[in-house]
Description:
This is Large ribosomal subunit protein uL22. By secondary structure, this protein is α+β, with helices and mostly antiparallel strands. The chain has a single domain (20-127), classed as CATH 3.90.470.10. The protein has four helices and three strands; from the N terminus they run αβαααββ. It has a three-stranded antiparallel β-sheet, with helices on one face. Strand 2 and strand 3 form a beta hairpin. Helix 3 (47-55) packs antiparallel against helix 4 (60-78). It is flat. The protein starts with 5 loop residues before the first helix and ends with a strand.
Amino acid sequence: MAKGHRSQIKRERNANKDTRPSAKLSFARVSVQKACFVLDAIRGKDVESALGILAYNPRYASSVIEKLLKSAIANAENNNGMNVDNLYIEECYANKATTMKRIKPRAQGRAYRIEKLTSHITIVLNER
């Protein structure tokens, strides 16, 4: 059992909380591998050049990640009071989420399984 009062435990837990602005998209309908191709292209870049890269990238994941990056920028500006010109992408990663299992009918009464992959995409910003 934890020591201290419940409010003290919560205070200690919130003191260790990460204060960097971030945005997370859960259950994005794109596989981790396809999302990582786009995330690798923008990791470490400032937000202006990252938005430019995402705007002209032909992959489907880039449109999803562009929307997520704009959300992270808005979080930094409104919640943390940061200057947009000094922001850069410190961390960005995609983790595996649940897999949607579907069935495709095949010849002679067989059924093949189709697995539709999803991912959790996270973008963390910081100021230079």
